[in-house]
Amino acid sequence: MKVAIIAANGGAFDAYKVFNIATAAAAADGEVEIFFTFEGLNLIHKEAHKQLPMPEGTEHFKEGFEKANVPSIPELIEMAQDLGVKFVACQMTMDVMGLSKEDFVDGIEVGGAATFLNYAKDADISLTF
Amino acid sequence: MKADFTVDASGLTCPMPIVKTKKAMNNLEGGQVLEVLATDKGSIADIQAWAESTGHQYLGTKEDGEVLKHYIRKASEGEEKEEKKYDKTIDNNGLKSKLNEDITIIDVREPAEYAFGHIPGALSIPMGELEERLNEIEKDKDVYVVCRTGNRSDMAAQKLSEKGYHVINVVPGMSEWDGPIEKSDS
Predict the structure, then answer these.
(1) Which of A20, A27, A69 is opposite residue B12, by nearest beta carbon?
(2) What Gene3D superfamilies has UniProt attached to this entry (chain A) (predicted)?
(3) Is the domain of B117 the same as that of B169?
(4) Tens digits of residue pLDDT in B73-121
(5) CATH code of B154's domain
(6) Which residues of B touch A29 (CB under 8 A)?
(7) In-domain check, residue B181
(8) Cis peptide before B17 (omega within 30 of 0)
(9) Domain residue limits at B61
(10) Residues of B in contact with A24 (CB under 8 A)
């Protein structure tokens, strides 16, 4: 199973959608690559990923997340990388936002649209969040 | 229920039960059984789907209050390859027609597999215990050996035949068994 994911949004809910699917796929021996672009870069930004915003009006779900013992985003990132999920940051967005590879969590790669397309062309599952 | 290894994912949400299962499975040898404890109700469907996509064998789930106990048997390499060597075999229907006769049926699968469904009256002797439990098998009866796909029982049949038993291997075995089934708790 080969899974290609585009992460283009930067909220806490977006992060859960992306990393839950990615870790589940990797745990089922899937090959997984996530392409982070535009606000999606927040999900792997060294500082930003630790305090991603909840969508407006849903702040009260915070308690639900804690009660259900949902893993934190930093934990999910570590787990995903541990299971071999590949993180690719979009070079073009980084240039626009003035970010460099050092601004992100360790172990990421940097690439462009063609990099992602080349990976995704024979993927069994392609997802965009 | 006897398992070789237990991993505790209780109190954890998706995707943690699957991630924990995957990591624990790496420590098992082919053929061993993993017990996964979970409280996430979604894990019932998820564990089965996970087993299907990874090729491991989902045995079943027991509910113990809030806790779900899932049992999965790790696939061994080349398990699905059909390499039968023992020449005396019978198919499932053949055995079904003999259930009322005075025969011995030995189920050589793991105890957890046996517990989730076996032929009524079959004696559970896991492959690994066969040598030391030979005294439980009567010599003057026909012995039918069964497992899931006919591979482990093939090895068992060869072993028993060497020891002087009149043995018949049941092919394919429990994976396609549609006759009577009995379940047990331990």
Answers:
(1) A69
(2) DsrEFH-like
(3) yes
(4) 999 876 544 455 889 999 999 999 999 999 999 999 999 999 999 999 9
(5) 3.40.250.10
(6) 22, 53-54
(7) no
(8) no
(9) 5-73
(10) 14-15, 18-19, 46
